[in-house]
Amino acid sequence: MALPWPVTICGDVTVLHGGFLLASRLCHPKPLSELTKADWPVVGKPIVEALQEICTSYSAYPPQPEAWKEKAAVVLWSKILSSDPSGPAFSANQRWKDDPFFSAANAIPEVNRTVLYELFKALGASRLFARLLRVLPDPVGRREAEALVEYMAKDTSPDDAAFFLNVWGELMKQKDGAEDRLTAMFRAATRQYLPDPDEADRPPKRFKGDPPPLTGPSSVAVGILPVLTEGLKLIKESIVPAKMKCHAVANLLEALSISLAPHSQPEELPVRTYLDKISSVVTLWSSDGENPCRDQGLEQRVKEAERSVSILSVAQGSGEASLVDFAFLRSLLEEWSPDLQGILRDPQQICYESYRLLDRLASLEKILASYAEPDPLQTKKVSELAEFVVDFSKKINPESWSKTADRDLVASVAAVIIDKRMDRHAEVCAVFAAEKDWALSREWVACLGRNKDLFQTPELVLRLLETAVEGGRSTGRFEQQTGAAKVLLECYSQLPLADQNAVVAGVLAAWSRRGLSATWAAFSEGFQEELNVAFNQIIQSASGDGFQKAVASVARLVVLNPEATVKKVVHLAVANLGTHRFLAEILRSFPALRFREPTEAPGESAGLVMSCLKEAVWGRLSSAKEKEQFLEFLVYLLQPNGAGPLLQLAEVTRHLVLPSLKSDSPSVELSLRILDQLLRVSSEEGWIQSCHPFPLLLALCRLLDGFGHYWHAPAGQRPCPLEAKDLVADNLGRLAEALVAQKEAVPPELWTQSVSWLHKKTQALDWTVGLRLKGVFGQHFKNEAPATLFEVCQLPGEEWAACPSPSYGAGSGLLAWMECCCVSTALQEEMLARLAVNVDNPEEVNLFSKGFIVALVQVFPWCSHGEWRRLVHVIRNLLDKEVLYVPYSLEYVHHLPLLDLRPFAFHLRFSVLMLRAFQFLCGASGATWLPGEAWKHVSKLYCLGVSDLLGSLKGLAQGQGLSPEGKPAARALSFVYIQVFCHALHVAAMLPEEAPDEGPVLLALEVLARYETLHDADEAPGSALRKANERHFLASVAENITHAELRAMILQKLRKM
What we know:
- One of its GO terms (cellular component) is SMN complex.
- The protein has 49 helices and two strands.
- By secondary structure, it is mainly alpha-helical.
- A two-stranded parallel ribbon has the order 1-2.
């Protein structure tokens, strides 16, 4: 098998072989297999010198001075174990094939354990001895430990005692690093050639690499430590120096702690204590001239100190400790008390051995305090021992209990643990990130830069930021801050997006809306330039391919200055055409931006995004396109993502809607559109209840009331166009409906009080406003209307009541009725159903028809588009039922033959009705009634009604299969178009000169285009004269158009027919 070092016959083995030959000669006539301890000083010298020669030679590159010491010790022990007569017998050929140590071992004469132990002692290899002893099978390891104790107990020298104590201490340490190849090969070889109770009947196996570990800490605690405890009893008389006594007692305390561990359920050391202990050990070693670790580098000393702190896992102890062990510990402490107290009471003599003794004494004290054992005698002895330990500890100077390490050293130790990924390095990272005294030091920044991958959790990154900012206040050096800021931002940038959001949330909570820019100049320097560059690139690549890159860029900006970043996004979303959705998606990637400042009234405060919207663009939207993009952008931000939307419906209502629902607010129309979207996208339960719903209803009601005085208000005080009346009414209806749906969530008393308050406030408004709140008023209040309405309607008294209305005098019932028809479709149907007109009485029908035109003229100018369409529906319903009488009054009928106009009866009578209404409206009594803007509005409503009429004519013609090929129905349709054309031009001529409007003339042009289609398709025999007469008639009417351009356009069109 391939090995990493030569174990066959080579120059180094030859040198070693020569050393053993010289030793054999010196030992003669006894063989080396009978060597005694007393013989070693003379006999062992050639062996040690041979090893020194091998280790100082240049046979290996790079030089490995310790490698051959370990190889020689392993080969020697393997040879002794393989020579055990109780093991299986193998031929030399078989061993040459399977034993990796055979070639080297075969070059060494037979030796006994004296050579082995003395060689380990000479090499100072107590750790290697413990490591190899630990991997031996359980019974073999115990037997080898017994052999060691037996050897050391005979003619014990100070070196023997020191080696014994060192081996014992090394065995109890948690680990010795990763198991190297040499140890693994030794483990395999010893298991191959030694009998195992579980495998006694099985044939031996060939060596096949590293087998799974069959020994471990539990085998050490159960099998070996008790043997070594007995060994201490045998050699204690040979332990004289106070330091060595501290070492011995510490070993005994540790062994007892391990054996008692399962009863005490101890906890792992807090990481800060763990770090302080390692630092203290390093400090003690550095000041101890006798300690071999003093000359090692910091990295090696930290590794050794960690091993000394990480003792054998107590959870794997045996759980058994004999009364004899308790008695032995007590007697040892009593016997050695003068020497121990002498060194422990003097802080100036504190050393690693005394520190370790006190540390293990404190650990055992805790274990004994929680010890539980069913045996009363055992419990009594443990209690007595605990009392003795406490009394012993009280005699020690408190200053001797610890050795405080320098702050900089602790930081350096933490850096080494992190750099080398030692045990508990992840916990040390948490300490490293939280220790303000270390922050911003050169070593701190350098360690963080080398180990960024270990700080890849949002908790650690946030802790680092907080620590660095706090530490930076004391140092204040810009150069340090700059380097630290760069590394910290790199740590943050490497986090996944979800973790970055967690960091942003923490930054906002710690430093509010300015983020890290509010802490250091290093974080704010160059931010504005970086912001502009980043968003220039984002705008240029606003597509799906660049989305992830854009989010990554914004993530860095957001943590530096959330407020400035969001304001930039908001501004660009409004100012740049077509980018608002892309930018909204970027913002929605950061749910942490839902942050809001903690206030006394959290429900009233504006969140970060809302504040940025208000400060960056609200009130500055000038063009219709900007308002449209802002509205769409807002809707995107209201859409939920994984953690909820960035904006809450109630928040938007409180800050962008409710304050602007005033007739004098320049943003009232936009606020109405926002409210319309909120009511459409509503997905949150109970949001209406949290945004002052009844004041919101009242604000909408007041806006509606203001439309009743719209044309009487000065032009500068009408920021909201009359067309927005439908939006207000729709919002009011939907809001009332949603509020009623959530009625059960409101306490009944509060609901009644709120409804009463709203009813009282609406009493001062137009009476039609209250009709829109019937769903809210419910059974609390009836519909209230002027008394004159009851004269034309049969309204039930349990639902309707009369209200004082001074402006509605005698004969105004039809006006009130028509206003009710404009409120809603449902109320319109009720009004039509309850209208009291006797159609069998001609005089009553005639009187109603005249009154209808008078009411229409009074209502018409204040109608919105929706209300006007409802009125058109009412007119059609009344005409169809012959409740409303409108004679044809065809002034131009002598120009045309008599036709069947019954399919077009409504269309002709509606056009005539509108003509008569305008005659009334534009007459001498009404010409000064409306301002110029009102006439334009009225003209638009007229054009809207006639346009709908033309659409109805087209649908009727298609439905009846009318074609223009000379059929009488097509001629009738042509006649209707001619009538509407004449009426439209007539209306245009009646409009006041101070309020010119091209709408009716353009409408006439559209009607003419439809007539032209029928005219060109009419090829019936004898139609030429009729068409010529029609053209002449239309031209004579068009001559009266005052607008020269439109008149010329129509006349030219007629000439081309």
